């Protein structure tokens, strides 16, 4: 991008806020793009992140929804997706580009409202999990397609249905996004109604994904992170010619490709996310969550 882009970072309770500040202000991985406003965080958290930026020569200040006129784009990064609608809406209504961290929202109604507001006001609205861009995903997909057409897909990983951060929405979106990328990330990909099974340490949803005119059976296995604190993200892809599988390692800078994708959308070099891409995963996870009736357990050890 050729012009300076001033970002507001809204929602500071997640470790993702630390990474955004590190990538954009401290290490300055994206020339001309800087966080200039910190919002929706307690004063101590604002001071902590501002100090890191100041040490790298980047001035930031506390702000809020009134900063629609003083920034060029926004990253909403609350841990809980239920906070994203209220945090993003003022900026979307102002026509600003907005990247909403995963999960996009925790309800279909909130997702639909943001998408409608973006369309009406000309806002570039984006949301995705880092699993969409993990190199292991691209490698597995290429290896699978070398054997034949994909017929079934299983993605497993940590996701707690009783997480205080909106249950399966919090980490389950990683499984959905990995599956989407393994299937080719087509804009027309749609999800059917999931059949959800329950085990002592996992919730598994079996759902039909339709993409490119073909149906693929997808299994999303959400493993209890309290029972399995080191559970990796893993995918098994079965094709007409064989099966490939492997772990999906996000790496330490997993938000860098997410930011690059968003900034390319802002620059107009990558197409914006469609309604189906934004609302579909929320609807799928909402249907999975609605089927869960589980007692409260300890929270996840996974920070993402």
Structure notes:
The structure is a single chain. The chain is an alpha/beta fold and 304 residues long. It is built from eight helices and 13 strands. Strand 9 and strand 10 (202-211) form a beta hairpin. The two termini are 28 Å apart. Residues 6-126 form the Gfo/Idh/MocA-like oxidoreductase N-terminal domain.
Q: Which features does this protein show?
A:
Dihydrodipicolinate Reductase, domain 2; single chain; 6-stranded parallel β-sheet; 304 residues; 2 domains; 8 helices; alpha/beta; Rossmann fold; globular
| Name of the CATH superfamily of the largest domain | NAD(P)-binding Rossmann-like Domain
CATH topology of the largest domain: Rossmann fold
User: Termini, distance in Å?
Assistant: 28 Å
Strand percentage, roughly? Answer: 15-25%
